[in-house]
Amino acid sequence: MRIPYISILAASLATAGVSAAFSIPRFPFVDPSSNKHNQRVMTTNDLGPQIPMPPKKPSDQNAGGNGDLTISDILPSQRQINIFAGLTRDISSLTSRLESQLPSSNTTLLAPLNSAMSNLPRKPWEDRPGDTSGVSAESSEDKAAKNLRRFVLEHVVPVSPWEEGQKIRTLWSQENEEGKEGREIWWERRGGGDSGETERKVIMPGKVVVAGVVGRVGNGEVWSLKDVVNYE
Ligand SMILES: *[C@@H]1O[C@H](CO)[C@@H](O)[C@H](O)[C@H]1NC(C)=O
C-alpha cells in the first residue's frame, strides 16, 4: 500500500534528483540513472577539472583542498554517496549550511556510502526502535520528515577541521533538547603501525569505519562511511 505522504516524500526527493539503488519498493528514492542535479550544478559552476577524484586507497591523499568550492558544489559529483547526498537536499537549513562560506558554518559531513544506505535495517524516515513519542511515521508525514531530518543531521559534524579525538555533538544533537543528553562523537585511528592492519579512521563510539575523505573544500570536508551513525 502506498500512503499519500510517502508519495509526497518520494516526489520531493525525486525533484532533488536523488539517485538510488534501493530495492525496497516503498523507499522514496528514484532512478539511479538520474543526474539532473549534477547537470544543474554543472551549469552554474564549471566543476569539471576541479572535482576531487575518488581516493585510490582509504586515506586523505586525494583531498588537496579547494578554497573556492563548497561542500554543496562537490556533493553531486560523488556518486558513491549520492543516496545520502540526496537526503541532505531535503533539509533547507542544512543546504544553506553546506553552501555557506562563513567559517562558523564549516562542516564535516559524514556521508554513508550507497552500500550502507541500501543495507539499512529500516528506512531513515521510519520510527526508531523504542520510539516513545506516541506518533507514528506510518500515519504522520511530519513524523516521517522529522525522522529523516534526524537521520541526516546525525551525520553533520558542525566543525572543520575536525581534529582526532575532538568530541562533539552532531548538528541534530545540538539542535534538540533530546540530544543534549545524547552522545558526543569523535574519531580515532585504528590499525596501522605494527598491527598489520591498514590504518583507518573510525567514528566513535560506534566504530564506524571511514572509507575515505572524498572531498576537502573551503567550508569543510566530506567523509564517506562504511556504515551509518547512531542508528538502531
Ligand atoms: C574553516 O575551514 C577552512 C578550510 O578548511 C579553514 O581554513 C578555516 O580555518 C576553518 N575555520 C574555522 C573557524 O574552523
UniProtKB/TrEMBL annotation:
Keywords linked to the UniProt accession: Signal
Domain called FAS1: residue spans: 68-229
Presence of keyword Signal: yes
Residue spans of biased composition, Polar residues class: 33-47
PANTHER family linked: FAS1 DOMAIN-CONTAINING PROTEIN YDR262W
Positions of the UniProt region annotated as Disordered: 33-67, 109-141
InterPro entries assigned: FAS1_dom_sf, FAS1_domain, Mug57-like
Full protein name: FAS1 domain-containing protein
Naturally occurring in which organism (per UniProt): Knufia fluminis
Signal peptide from the UniProt entry: 1-21
Keyword Signal among record annotations: yes
